[in-house]
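I had to read the description of the data format several times before I understood it. For illustration, here is how one protein appears when written out as sequence plus structure tokens:
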Amino acid sequence: MRRSLGLRALVEGEDLRMAGRARNPVQGLLLWLRRQPPKVKTALGCVGAIAMLVLLRFLVVDHDNLFVLAEAIHSVGIIVLIYKLQKERTCAGLSLKSQELTAIFLAVRLYCSVVMEYDIHTLLDTATLATTLWVIYMLRFKLKSTYMEDLDNLPSYYVIIPCAALAFLIHPSTAHHVVNRILWAFCVYLEAVSVLPQLRVMQNTKVVEPFTAHYVFALGVARFLSCAHWVLQIIDGRSYLINALGYGWWPSMVLLSEIVQTFILADFCYYYVKSVLEGQSIVRLPSGVV
């Protein structure tokens, strides 16, 4: 009981000190958010996401551009990683397994793009895959001595096998060859959870250095824009979207995958924005985050 009261007094004292330092409304808002229970924070996050969707619907005329922008931001995140590896000559804090999973789903998606549609996404995926393979090469060979293998401890097959099984069961019902349809579903499911090993590394370290934080935040923004693309397409009632996806469970699984990958990164993005607004270059994660 005394320990609980002492901890509460310590937290309240820290809040008062932060309030004393707060010189602008942003810091005051952060202090207010910090005091809210998890359920309130979750509700506010959902409201903020809905507000952003409404804003994007009116600001972006062609919602297909959101998907292109999402892929472009993912590429920017990879470029940030390349800069980190070149400048600091260390891969500490990065998950090799996440990069390998990313390369797998990009390679599969690139194949599906070539044989099923071939458009600007094909070019973007080619560039992103090439840079991802370069990052993997650096982690496996050039900077292997700085790789935190003991912290990158989420087995890849924990992610790959469930995605492959789900793709075999639920995939598009389009006119394409069944193998291509299963591969398409596999890359969608794998993309949704490919960041899990990276989150495990950050969970183990509790401290995320700037370049890694920028990369993961870029992934979070890209996933949100991709999710917004699908949601807005459905809201607008685009008939060609249904024709492209087919019928049955598959359209729902596409949307669910986009929502899952957005929420997986939402918690980290909150702490990233909080750290940036507070002027901190390093993101510190409390226990239980990601």
In short: The mean pLDDT is 79. The beta strands are 207-208, 283-284. The chain has twelve helices and two strands. Residues 14 and 20 are 10 Å apart (CA to CA).
